[in-house]
Amino acid sequence: MKSSLKIVTIFMFGVFISFYIKNNFIVKTFSIVEEYDLTTYILYILMFLVGFGIGGDTKSWRVLKEFNIKIILVPIVIIAGSLLGGLLFGIITNSFTIKDSLAVSSGLGYYSLSSIIITESVGETLGTIALLSNILRELITLIFTPLMVKYFGKLAPIASGGATSMDTTLPIISKYVGKDYAVISIFSGTILTIAVPILVSIMV
Fold first, then answer.
1. Are 63 and 180 in contact (CB under 8 A)?
2. I need a labelling partner for 166 at 20 to 30 A (CA). Which of 26, 126, 187, 192 fits?
3. 33: CB partners within 8 A, 6+ apart
């Protein structure tokens, strides 16, 4: 619980600092925020450090041998679980059709691409819902990874992160599941990222 509170605190602090910097007259004068996406570069640095740590620890790769062919089941089960959730939501609610719910859930956390495809194919309303729901999926993973690992196991945050488990949520996942499972996180996230445009296109 303490870890989650720390993450929330850091997140809110980041929001505050970002808001302050963006509205600071010095930054506005030099247009730093407008010209450079600082969060992207910070993400690159974090991913480099995670990759450096995994690559430097040869024991991390033993998980591939331990899981063997079973590692392929991780992204498959994540896809099945996400679509099942979308199906159930579509059945129990009258707000969306089952098809729309499946389209949104097939985003698997990849909010930018999935929302664009859905917006162009279905409309702005569903595209916005897809964007928000998949962003929420990422935020939940970033904030609650410590609790997920504690109560549901090391694969839980990997499943929750979906396609983002290979990039934006990888640093926090790697910290709490260990380098061994970080390899699985990268593999799963990569497969899911490739699968998103195919799944969304089919569902819409």
1. yes
2. 126
3. 21, 22, 27
